[in-house]
Amino acid sequence: MINKKQLALSLFIGAGLILIKLVTLAFASPNDTQLQTVSSLFSMGMWYVPLLFVFLYYFVYSSICYLVLRVITYTLNNVLHK
């Protein structure tokens, strides 16, 4: 069963982590390989590839946060009810 509060919190945390990753990428040095890869993909007309990676990272980060929240809740419920 999906806990809606945990899902919303994990989506919010995932968005925050993606925002932090994008800001650090934006302020990276020009010699950074990730920044060079993204700019070359945009110049080749493959603008959708970095966007797909952003969605993939968002999904992974949100899923990990949700899983951690579920494990914490399960552990706390079993410890407190015994």
Q: H/E order of the elements?
A: HHH
- DSSP helical segment count: 3
Using DSSP, what is the number of strands? 0
Quick one: overall form? elongated
**Helical fraction:** over 70%
Spans of 5+ residues with little confidence (pLDDT < 50)? none
Using only CA atoms, what is the Rg? 18 Å
Share of β-strand residues: under 5%
Tell me the structural class: mainly alpha
Please give the largest β-sheet. Answer: none
Quote the average pLDDT: 89
Query: Distance N terminus to C terminus?
Result: 22 Å
Task: Describe the protein.
- The protein has 82 residues and is mainly alpha-helical.
- Helices cover 82% and strands 0% of the residues.
- The chain is built from 3 helices and no strands.
- The chain has helices spanning 4-26, 33-43, 48-80.
- α1 crosses α3.
- The longest helix has 33 residues, at 48-80.
- The two termini are 22 Å apart.
- The model has no long low-confidence stretch (mean pLDDT 89).
